[in-house]
What does this fold into?
Amino acid sequence: MLTGGHVAVLLDLLHLFNVAPLLASRPVVAWSAGAMVLTDRVVLFNDRATHGHAYPEVFGAGLGLVRDVVALPAARQRLLLGDRARMASLARRFAPSWCLPLEPGSRVELDADYRLPATASVIGGEGELVAVGELAYDETAPDETAPDETAPDETEREAVDGE
It folds into this structure.
């Protein structure tokens, strides 16, 4: 169980005690800062800061258990979700990762490989909230099923091997 709190302190302690390998083999319940540290990069954000809009920034590397996801806890409280241009900019900035707004009491159950379910709501390329399953993978996240365009095809491999 990973609770909320100060994300920097939590992340430093988890890195210090090398907790990631232990978490990888167990079910994990996390919220707020705890959800943020499970991702591959921790993003700080607050559109409603007292000094005005703050641009989202990458704080640092998370534990990397949940890849290609930017966890955004208390999203309605901290983000201007109705500002579609701002939300589209956020989604584009952190693409190919999914920007996952989390609300108090919400639940997102990941699969065994720590991937988002098709029903999870993320911020789409137009700044709208949309289910992962409704988005084309090339819109805001990597397509794991697409062939690697940098890899040579079979005829190129044969030519290289035959030289």
Remarks:
- Confidence is low (pLDDT under 50) at residues 138-163.
- The two ends are 55 Å apart (CA to CA).
